[in-house]
Amino acid sequence: MLKEQAEALLDEVLKEHPELFLIDFTVSSANQIKIVIDGDKGVNLEDCMTVSRAIEHNLDREAIDFSLEVTSPGATEPLTMPRQYGKNIGRTLEVKTSETTVKGTLVSAEEEGITLEWKAREPKPIGKGKTTVLKSVMVPFSEIIKANVVLKF
């Protein structure tokens, strides 16, 4: 009952704010509601407060005791939905597939997958020494096991 009410309110607020989207929604047996949202341009505190208020102000605490937490994915959390890649274009990602792990700059996010680019040092085709080559790979979403933004300090 609580889950259904919270889910309906969540759907409503996300329809009112189409730039936001749901990453995770859980309700524990102790009535702890946890919602993780993201946005096409990121998520700020105001976005979390908007979602929180839309749910909290429309549930009756007199009828049922609950706790509510609305957050955005942390910087170290893996990207889990194709929609999250668009806002990370230009950033360095580490993408793991069943075949390999690729680290490169995200240059595009299409409907079917992403394209990464990176520079590699390779032997010259003729003669001695190495040359820097720009490499590129398209990775379908279906092949991505895990993808993280590489944080720079």
What does this structure look like?
The chain has 153 residues and is of the alpha+beta class. It has two domains: 70 residues, GMP Synthetase, Chain A, domain 3 (2-Layer Sandwich); 68 residues, SH3 type barrels (Roll), CATH 2.30.30.100. The chain has two helices and eight strands; from the N terminus they run H-E-E-H-E-E-E-E-E-E. The strands form two sheets. A five-stranded antiparallel sheet has the order 7-6-5-4-8, with no helix packed on it. A three-stranded mixed sheet has the order 1-2-3, with helices on one face. The N and C termini lie far apart (45 Å).
Key descriptive features of the protein:
single chain, 153 residues, alpha+beta, GMP Synthetase, Chain A, domain 3, SH3 type barrels, 2 domains, 5-stranded antiparallel β-sheet, 3-stranded mixed β-sheet, 2 helices, 42% strand, Ribosome_maturation_RimP, cytoplasm, Ribosome maturation factor RimP, RimP_N_sf, RimP_N
Name the beta content range.
35-45%
Structural class: alpha+beta
Query: Could you please say which CATH topology of the largest domain applies here?
Result: GMP Synthetase, Chain A, domain 3
What is the percent of helical residues? 10-25%
Instruction: Identify the strand order in the major beta sheet.
Output: 7-6-5-4-8
Helices and strands, in N-to-C order? Answer: HEEHEEEEEE
- Multimeric state of these chains? single chain
Span between N and C termini? 45 Å
Per DSSP E runs of 2 or more residues, the count of β-strands stands at 8
Shape: elongated
CATH class of the largest domain: Alpha Beta
What is the CA-atom radius of gyration, in angstroms? 21 Å
Subcellular location: Cytoplasm
Keywords: Cytoplasm, Ribosome biogenesis
Protein name: Ribosome maturation factor RimP
Function: Required for maturation of 30S ribosomal subunits.
